[in-house]
Specification:
4-stranded antiparallel β-sheet, 2 helices, 17% helix
């Protein structure tokens, strides 16, 4: 997930309706690969999700793409760039 939260990742988010958003993320491993994902939420929780990546449709847990978008929308966009990622 860190690969998507360092600030070097392009996340495009679209709100379809009040409780459904979609996002497009470029793969950090294959530059030509992009993943579409959808997140349905209520006021205080994520209710369901789906990502087009290999592990995105699994039943238990979520893939790093979903986790990165949830993190970005809830906390990441409010943090300063210096506080994100690993430091030496």
């Amino acid at each position: 997930m860190q690969e998507h939260t360092t600030g070097n990742c392009d996340i495009k988010v679209h709100v379809h309706e009040q409780s459904l958003i979609s996002a497009k993320l470029q793969s950090r491993h294959t530059s030509s690969r992009r993943y579409m994902l959808w997140i349905r939420h209520s006021e205080d929780m994520v209710e369901s999700w789906y990502c087009q990546c290999k592990t995105g449709s699994r039943v238990v847990g979520m893939c790093t793409h979903i986790a990165a978008v949830v993190w970005f929308l809830s906390a990441g966009r409010y943090q300063q760039k210096e506080s994100v990622g690993v430091r030496d």
